[in-house]
1-alkyl-2-acetylglycerophosphocholine esterase
Amino acid sequence: MGLPKPLGRYNVGFGDFDLRRIDDKPLSEVPSCPPFRIYYPTSAKPPAAWSGRCSRAWFPEFAYSWGLCSTVVRPTSGVRRVALGLFASLVHVVAWSWGAIYARAGAPLLPPSKEHEEESFLPVVIFSHGLWSCRTGYSALCCDLASHGYVVVAVEHLDGSAQMATYTDHRGKKKYVSHAHITESMGKVPFDERARQLKQRALEIQKVVDVLESLQEGLLTQGSNTVKGNTKLDVTCLLHRLDLNHLVIAGHSFGGATAVVAAGLDNRFKCCVGMDVWWEPTEKVSFEKTAGRMPMLFVNTEKFDWKALREARMVFLNGREAAGTEEEPLLTDVYTIKGTVHQDQSDFPLIFKSTAKKLGFNGDLAPETAKNINSRLCLEFLQKNLLPPGTVIPHPVEVVPEDKEYLVKLPPSGPTKL
């Protein structure tokens, strides 16, 4: 029941953080640190499936179910809004019953290892969600990474791209940000608007890094976290435990585009991982085509593919290749997982199994198999390219032989089987 057990040897804890805004200016004009959920390794035992410590945590509250369901029932009239409310209520019950996260809310952070001093500081991955998702929509992947010793910061963007988002205003009141184009189809939203959102998202990512630096140094107290309830993050556990010298930016779809843009804007990032990157909006913003000089991994699903997307991707990849030198080429790994669709890189097919199959939201590959291949590919890439050569990795991860059957790697000369 719920999301599968993480792949790594560590159990996983999580907590939510939200920093109060300091002014009442529009979010789009003055981006601030958005709320985020942190997943991290812990020595605490995972809770039972029906424990309040996990079972209600996948959708933070009913508003998120309402936001997700509005992709199916657009609230364009009173009747449709009533129908949406009923539909969302049903989905929320299902998500409450079957959406348990295999992690413990509020668990203590894994204590430093006496045998491996390097484990005292944990590398950090910041994750950016895609359209119509939120900070909890990729919990399975985040837990896989955390179970291998990473601190994963899942951001909830306030640009109007999420299914629903919340934040605390300058007066201390909780505010909701619903999807900005809730009554429109995706194809009707102009790319200029997507470019605006993308710029805001990248700035929000930078604000998150600023806040993590403050948490690392103890400049923010527990009172700065406005979250209430048992998912409230204990900020003191992060004091002097974050390895911000080895910082990763990652994301899926629109979040993948956010990761690429943020990587080009902020040299604090050392690796970038983009999953099914929605490349087209990146052509409308100004950023370094090489996205810094860091190693980059792109993991694509088989069905998320069309001409304009391929052309935009090749503009970026060609820019990467041209920016490198023979002595120092820029490392860019591009893989496709066969038998998968766009949603296979999210939690949706893992929780709503039969519904996802009927709607075409998962491919021929079993959802958990697709998730495992995706996670192992990311973990292997990070352990090879994030930490300095010679770093002791207590629990190394490799793509297993069975995974290679489903992987196609794209070299500079074109696609070949791995």
